Amino acid sequence: MNADAKESFIEHLRQQTPSMQTKKVYWLTIVLFCSVFSMGVYMRSVSMGETKVYRSIQKDAKDYFACAYNLVVRGTYSRDFDGVVDPHHKVKPDAHRNPGYPLFLSLAMNPKSISETAVNIVVAQVLVSIATLALAFYLYSGFCLGF
């Protein structure tokens, strides 16, 4: 190999090195994301399967649930829990809670089965949590890595 060919080959390798490093960072990021994502899905799924409720709905959860239930069943935004327990109770509208989370809960609401509603809510929260992992990766890869 003559000197010019050798220099040309070395220059070619120098030009390829950043690209190879970028590919390595890209694949390392993908592997890392898949690992974290898989662990996140696993942990959320296990926590969903092993969650046990020992008390009835109480405190903030009671208000949010009542708002969602009354919104779906009665068409009234109210945290009055008596509207959940007594079908003849007339609920009065109020705005003591922000409507975001009750609206989210209303998507999973099954007025005929509170236990099914609880399962639907937990599944929905797991899906939102998984989507948050994917969004975090997307933002990280876009802003930090430039992919």
Concise summary:
The protein has 147 residues and is an all-alpha fold. It is built from five helices and no strands. Helices cover 73% and strands 0% of the residues.
Label the structural class. mainly alpha
Number of helices: 5
Main sheet summary: none
**Rounded average pLDDT:** 81
Using only C-alpha atoms, the radius of gyration works out to 26 Å
| Helicity level | over 70%
- Beta-strand portion reads under 5%
Strand element count: 0
What would the principal axes of the Cα set say about the shape? elongated
Head-to-tail CA distance between termini: 39 Å
Quaternary organization: single chain
Order of helices and strands: HHHHH
Low-confidence stretches: none
Which terms would index this structure?
single chain; 147 residues; elongated; 0% strand; mainly alpha
Would you write up a description of this structure?
The structure is a single chain. The chain has 147 residues and is an all-alpha fold. Helices cover 73% and strands 0% of the residues. α1 runs antiparallel to α5 and α2 (59-74) packs across α4. The longest helix has 48 residues, at 3-50. The mean pLDDT is 81.
Secondary-structure blueprint:
Elements: H1 3-50, H2 59-74, H3 82-85, H4 100-107, H5 114-145
